[in-house]
Amino acid sequence: MSTKRSVAFHTLGCKLNFSETSTLSRQLEQEGFEKKAFTDKADVYVINTCSVTENADKECRQLVRRIQRLSPESFVVITGCYAQLKPKEISEIPGVDLVLGAAEKFNLVHHLSSLTKGDETKICSCDIETVSGFNSSFSVNDRTRTFLKVQDGCDYSCTFCTIPMARGKSRSDTVQNVVKQAKELAANGVKEIVLTGINLGDFGKGGDGGKKHEEDFFDLVKALDQDTEIPRYRISSIEPNLLTNEIIEWVAKSNKFMPHFHIPLQSGSDAVLKLMQRRYNSAFYKDRIESIKKIMPHACIGVDVIVGSPGETEAYFKESFDFIHALDISYLHVFTYSERAATKALDIKPIVPIRIRNERNKQLRNLSYQKQQYFNAQHIGDTRKVLFESIKQKEGDQAMLEGYTDNYIRIVTPFRPEWSNQIVDWEIA
Q1: Which of 46, 49, 80, 95 could bridge across to 68 with cysteines, CB 3.0–4.6 Å?
Q2: ∠ at Cα 426 (252, 248), nearest 5°?
Q3: pLDDT at 129
């Protein structure tokens, strides 16, 4: 290694991964590492992986090959969900020096100190059942918006999902610690915090083996609303069965929590939901949407959907499509099912051909576009508060500012320095 060691990071997957990568980056910078772009030569490359889809696994391998061509003498570290699930498989990828599982991710600095190039790949993993600690993290790409991790792991057993195997049992920070972090972020100029977790609504199980705190997610929402100076909060994603009326009603009257929900559905067919072992049915989900819209008709609602999961017949897909079409929602995140090792879904029949999965994905993405356009059109003429980013965007030769309304409508306008990282009243055109 050079005297001034350098490190480059690449993140695959969810916003939670991005918040953890950002924290790892700050840890290494505090130890004297110089941060480099992933496309530059660096002494150490860290890839924080996802394993929700097969593509994430493939991308990890491609990234390692790219590093080998660019800088074969550099150290390559793989961490994240893929590293926890398949450490032996990753260790056999040529060029990988260190594999860190869920319990060792935040001990990266320690492991780098004892790493020697050319040694056999070092695997630091564990039985996921023994992982009980909670490591707080947050992302700061600019001062405007931060993704703050307050919960990790999941106790659910959805048949398509590897997350409990990769991240372990549900556990979370304390309300006191989260409030303290929010105050520190506010002092550094952050204007919006997005609360993130694997199963965010399950907040309250501690980092001490899952022992229940005497607090829950609603307590966290109230404390952040009342005790911090952050002007805007968003709830990243919350299971419908954990989105209570009291949370919805609090957001409706809050000046800080934005009227924006992201609520996983996965399927609008009750038969498929049962096969997935989800904890609600379509009627319950519809009730949650209607509860929000009744008191916040302007609220933006995003929805996760999986297409092509085992057992999703053509009739079930049509049932799901029609259900989503009738819902008063704003946009979809559409995922194409991919087989994941050791999941119960592998035993469910019939298997949907890849071609059909891709066709269904396209149909729902088209529906999402229509939903988004309709939602935006409903608010033309409204004046809403927009938080503009602190970073300039480029559109041809023109410098631009991008921001989002409280209800998550994207606004782009020519750059004005006085609006950077500021909340501005904006008439939607």
Answers
A1: 95
A2: 10
A3: 79
What rounded mean pLDDT belongs to the chain?
93
Contact 390, 416 (CB under 8 A): no
Around Cβ 62, how many Cβ atoms within 10 Å?
A: 10
325, 340 in Cβ contact below 8 A? Answer: no
Q: Domain check: are 204 and 247 in the same one?
A: yes
Which domain covers residue 90, as residue numbers?
6-126
| 429 burial via Cβ count (<10 Å: 0-12, 13-18, 19+) | exposed
User: Do 318 and 180 reside in the same domain of the chain?
Assistant: yes
Give the rounded distance of the alpha carbon of 72 from its chain centre. 31
241 domain residue, yes or no: yes
| Six token digits for residue 162 | 């590897």
Q: Which residues contact 120 (CB under 8 A, 6 or more apart)?
A: none
Angle at 312 between CA 311 and CA 313, to 5 degrees: 100
**What angle, 0 to 180 degrees and rounded to 10, lies between the N-to-C axes of helices 245-253 and 282-295?**
20
**Which two three-digit tokens encode residue 36?**
């480099």
Angle at the Cα of 419 from the Cα atoms of 414 and 421, rounded to 5 degrees: 115
392-422 confidence digits (pLDDT tens)? 777 677 889 999 999 999 999 999 999 999 9
Would residue 191 count as lying in a domain? yes
Burial of 104 (0-12, 13-18, 19+ CB in 10 A): buried
Provide, rounded to the nearest whole percent, the portion of the chain with pLDDT above 90.
Answer: 82
Domain assignment of residue 115, yes or no = yes
Tokens for 290? 């209607």
Span 236-262, mean pLDDT?
Answer: 98
In a domain, 70, yes or no: yes
pLDDT at 1: 43
350 in helix, strand or coil?
coil
Contact 59, 22 (CB under 8 A): no
Cβ atoms within 10 Å of 272's Cβ, excluding its own: 23
CA angle 100, 102, 107 (to 5 degrees): 55
pLDDT at 2 over 50: no
Helix (H, G, I), strand (E, B) or coil at 401: strand
Rg (CA), the chain: 22
Banded pLDDT at 139 (limits 50, 70, 90)? confident
The CATH code of the domain that includes 184 is 3.80.30.20
Q: How many domains does the chain contain in total?
A: 3
Query: In whole angstroms, what is the distance from residue 32 CA to residue 28 CA?
Result: 7
